[in-house]
Amino acid sequence: MINIGIIGMGTRGQIYAETIKQSEHAVVAAITDISNESLELNTKKFNTKGYTDFEEMFEQEELDAVIVATPDFLHKEPVVLAAEKGVHIMVEKPFSTDLKEAAEMVKVIRQNGVKCLVGFENRWNSPFVAVKEAIDNGELGEINALNSRLNDSIYVPTKMLGWSLNSTPGWFLLSHSIDLACWLKNINPVSVFAVGTRKKLVSMGIDTYDSIQATVTFSDNTHATFTSSWILPENMPLLYDFKYEIIGENGSLHVDLHDQMVKKAAKSYEHLHTLGTPIDGRLTSAPSQMLISFIENILYDAEPIAGPEEGLLNTKIVSALHKSIKEGKIQEI
User: Domain GFO/IDH/MocA-like oxidoreductase, which positions (predicted)?
Assistant: First the structure.
């Protein structure tokens, strides 16, 4: 059995723990969380050991792998420690919000020969898997343009995340859609230009961007445009609105994850979240499929499809777009 530790038992950590419970090849060996209440609840729920300090967990437990599900800006220390101890790593996106830290993380991971999967979960999201297959089959020809819109309701930065002032729509949202562009095109980006707006959340005491728009240029002189905001009204039919358009020389693809086929009209109007609906109690969501893939990478000694180099590239792009906002200039990647 693969002994897996989980660092951070928020919503994501609990999804991963539930996924591991259903695995025939892995077990939740230990968890860490800074909240004693969370530890008490989840150690009982998952029948495992709990620590408030991930360093102590590494000292006390024999781990084969660890999942880093801490906030965006707190990935480096557990990733580096895990790598130094020879423990395989699955780390949430973004890989890091600091370019220097990201480069150091890649170096330590590669020096110690551990596997690392960066949590770009949409590579396991069935609509985008279908899109990737169509592109790779040559159905669209050369990809000439990509357009993405990924927005969240204001519930996310004001109620769901207690640390949103230390993040932005760039790190929390655009990291997803930008990774998809790099994965779908499989061509290096060379520059980015971006603008951002800070009004609504600042007025609420949360000093971060409301929205960001960016254009990325690739080495084949094609472009992708991205927009993300996390101040949509709470009464929108679904928590998030994700749309993606891929335009090729011979055709196009259009993805709308806000419309998941089932609409409910009762006390309120809602779009039911159908992607990833458990079937016979089995988890089928993109995060769960990603974790299953990571477990198989360890079992069969295979490299993850979203490794630390992809994480570093993503950090380079998102760092450059934030610099572009501040300086009002195109930034090279």
Answer: 128-253
